[in-house]
Amino acid sequence: MPSAPQECGDCPIRHKAVCARCDGDELALLEEIKYYRSFEAGQTVVWSGDRMDFVASVVTGIATLTQTMEDGRRQMVGLLLPSDFVGRPGREFAAYDVTATTDLVMCCFRKKPFEEMMGRTPHIGQRLLEMTLDELDAAREWMLLLGRKTAREKIASLIAIIARRDVSLGLRSKSQRLSLDIPLTREAMADYLGLTLETVSRQMSALRKDGVIVLEGKRHVVIPDFDRLIEEAGDDSDGGFLV
Amino acid sequence: MPSAPQECGDCPIRHKAVCARCDGDELALLEEIKYYRSFEAGQTVVWSGDRMDFVASVVTGIATLTQTMEDGRRQMVGLLLPSDFVGRPGREFAAYDVTATTDLVMCCFRKKPFEEMMGRTPHIGQRLLEMTLDELDAAREWMLLLGRKTAREKIASLIAIIARRDVSLGLRSKSQRLSLDIPLTREAMADYLGLTLETVSRQMSALRKDGVIVLEGKRHVVIPDFDRLIEEAGDDSDGGFLV
DNA sequence: CGATGTGTTGAACGTGGTCAAATGCGGTGG
DNA sequence: CCACCGCATTTGACCACGTTCAACACATCG
């Protein structure tokens, strides 16, 4: 089981999560209604349609939101990183499957008290609005990927997204030789990209053969030339860096 | 030019738009900073990357948000109906092309005063959060469509979406013989669905041949059996009716 | 060891894309 | 009234990309 922090003061997502704008007093109130839950890689947090009596922030690890059709076709519709928010105030049942793809720690708030607090504390709603607008932008970028990009472009885009995230989390600077772990199985990548896992595997091999990426093991990728990768992704250069 | 209403009291979107929760005083303040703009079908409202010094609500008509890649591939990422909100508080440049697909009237607010008012009037931010969360849900539904549905399912889904909207706007009851106009060209449908316009046309013909829909002219569709349509769309039955 | 999970690769197939031509419809002008 | 044009749409023929089905490689774990 991954371990959890205790105090909001120490919290690694303090300044990015839904609580980011809260002052000391507000934080103290939140601290009273919060509790941590941990999940191991592969565990399901909630199933679509289940009653969900909490909302939460991802503290560490990665979770996914997926939708499933009756015949089993699956599409990932959200990739939740540390500080991202799970659940919707005012909604009683989960709309998506939430799954831990790595070991995961979530900071949970019982829904009722959280909603009451939202009414009294504009800072929370303001921050949640900001985060939701960001997610909507990300979803729209994703729609372009799903609707119009080739398999090769989709793979390159995914790697670029992960690389940018690592940079923005301060894990490494842009100038260094870029190297990163893909925290997803080939199947999860396929669910993300609207492909089959075979196509994912083939295109990874193709990008490797063409020197766009270097594979070190199955999950570790080195990017010798980031601009080349962006080009392969079909994105406007620098898209995603300016806001 | 389509004509515009004058008073918030008469406004057809009064109780659904971003101003829905505002009381009389707040509405009076909004009334001072609002102005109407009209566009003819086909006109562009703003181009992606342009400076955008206003935010707005769609009053009547339909607009689209689209993203374009350098080589011209286009993906629609938003379909804006009456009461939907355009623009993002705090953002200076438009992130998407906004186009009027029918004659369009928008209720605009200059961005600066609107942002200031948001700070002082929680009702606006609250409502905007609600609307943004709804849009995010819609975007995720759309992602499933783009990533995993067949061309035939995509077409059936689009028709079902339009039909549901017409019902929810009270234009017709569910029990009646369903009949609706598609307010999009075949090309716009293709941009919406991540298809080519030829495939859209072919699948429309196929659904007609199989009796799922009846075409009366190019843009008017009769749905003899709504459940059959839903089945063709690959959706859970009743998906979208319960919230 | 075999069993299981994860990933790679190959061959055949089919859906949807591409390119091209034809059709239909509304508007404009002779 | 009809000829003509422009545009949206339909239809056809062919092709390619990504899927499907299958075999195989490799690591971890009982």
Describe the overall structure.
Two copies of one chain form a homodimer. With 243 residues, chain A is an alpha+beta fold. Chain A folds into two domains: 8-143, Sandwich (Jelly Rolls), CATH 2.60.120; 150-233, Winged helix-like DNA-binding domain superfamily/Winged helix DNA-binding domain (Arc Repressor Mutant, subunit A). Chain A contains seven helices and eleven strands. In chain A, strand 4 (63-68) and strand 5 (74-80) form a beta hairpin. In chain A, helix 2 (111-120) packs across helix 3 and helix 5 (186-193) crosses helix 6. The A-B interface holds A 65, 67, 69-71, 73-75, 77-78, 88, 90, 95-96, 122, 125-126, 128-130, 132-133, 135-137, 139-144, 146-148, 193-194, 234, 236, 243 and B 65, 67, 69-71, 73-75, 77-78, 88, 90-91, 95-96, 122, 125-126, 128-130, 132-133, 135-137, 139-144, 146-148, 193-194, 234, 236. The structure holds a DNA duplex (30 and 30 nucleotides).
Quaternary organisation: homodimer
**Secondary-structure element sequence of chain A?**
HEEEEEEEEHHHEHHEEH
Radius of gyration of chain A: 19 Å
Fraction of residues in H or I helices of chain A: 25-40%
CATH top level assignment of the largest domain in chain A: Mainly Beta
Largest interface: A-B, 39 and 39 residues
Mean pLDDT of chain A: 92
Given the helix and strand composition of chain A, which structural class is it?
alpha+beta
Low-confidence blocks of residues of chain A: 239-243
Q: Could you give a short account of the major beta sheet of chain A?
A: 4 strands, antiparallel
- Annotated CATH topology of the largest domain in chain A: Jelly Rolls
Strand line-up of the largest beta sheet of chain A: 1-8-3-6
Number of domains of chain A: 2
Number of helices of chain A: 7
- β-strand percent of chain A reads 15-25%
Shape of chain A: globular
- Give a count of the beta strands of chain A, DSSP E runs of length 2 or more: 11
Distance between the termini of chain A: 37 Å
The CATH superfamily of the largest domain in chain A is identified as Jelly Rolls
